[in-house]
Amino acid sequence: xxxxxxxxxxxxxxxxxxxxxxxxxxxxxxxxxxxxxxxxxxxxxxxxxxxxxxxxxxxxxxxxxxxxxxxxxxxxxxxxxxxxxxxxxxxxxxxxxxxxxxxxxxxxxxxxxxxxxxxxxxxxxxxxxxxxxxxxxxxxxxxxxxxxxxxxxxxxxxxxxxxxxxxxxxxxxxxxxxxxxxxxxxxxxxxxxxxxxxxxxxxxxxxxxxxxxxxxx
Length: 217
Description:
Radius of gyration: 17 Å
Low-confidence stretches: none
Structural class: alpha/beta
């Protein structure tokens, strides 16, 4: 089994130590290294080229936002999961704008953390529902949320539901008996109609307004 290669970047050693012990229990995960600040983390990522980075938002020398900006225009294929204390809306919004792939609270459980890691490693997004409200509140919206959803067709709402569950376009196509290209077109229409930048923002909106919590039917 090919393992998900990871690095940890957090300025609290006790937190890193606890995280390493937790992740070491999972046969599909491998911690390749750790760093205590953004500068060390940037060098570590460039050197080890991990699949997934778990990083704190607020760190000395270079914070999570600065680190991701440094890597944004490189050929790195690394995915990022931000672990946050849930107390800084501005930085959460900035991380979203620079392309973070997952958000997890430091108070979240083991299940949420592992789901986030495996989701982003598959190219999907993961947003802790409790973070969704803060993030969405910072997004520019031309209309209120209820009006925005009225612009979607029933089929697009169904695609949005599955997208918010972390499914890829291929997986959604299997669920809905559609071609992958058709699903991709639906996703593009959803983002355009809702004035959203990417799938992460779409998933956040789905959780915020309750679509993601509705039944499959």
